[in-house]
Specification:
The chain is an all-beta fold and about 90 residues long. The protein has no helices and nine strands. The strands form two sheets. The chain has a six-stranded antiparallel beta sheet with strand order 3-4-8-7-6-5, with no helix packed on it. β6 and β7 form a beta hairpin.
């Protein structure tokens, strides 16, 4: 079971993560959506497409743009469609 944890709170857990570029992408239904707030941030990856971001909010603390997903990944990255990844101090393992 792979988990994403921040500030002592489990954000996501799944036995079905996809690892791309060293990041675990969790199925969206395995992520506690109530801990995520959409942001206006986007970035572009040449082979994956345009990523959108979430702030992670736990116990009043905000980890800005600490989760991301690709709403419409390019064909080369179709395996991460409908999945969310984490960074910025979030423990994944």
């Amino acid at each position: 079971m792979t988990r994403a944890i921040w500030n002592g709170e489990v954000l996501a857990e799944s036995e079905d993560t996809v690892v791309v570029d060293g990041n675990h992408y969790f199925p969206a239904d395995s992520v506690r959506q109530e801990l995520l707030q959409p942001t206006a941030t986007t970035t572009v990856c040449g082979w994956k497409g345009t990523a959108s971001y979430y702030d992670v909010v736990v116990g009043g603390s905000v980890n800005s743009d600490a989760a991301w997903y690709y709403p419409a990944p390019k064909d080369a990255a179709r395996q991460i469609a409908g999945r969310i990844a984490f960074w910025k101090g979030i423990q994944v393992g």
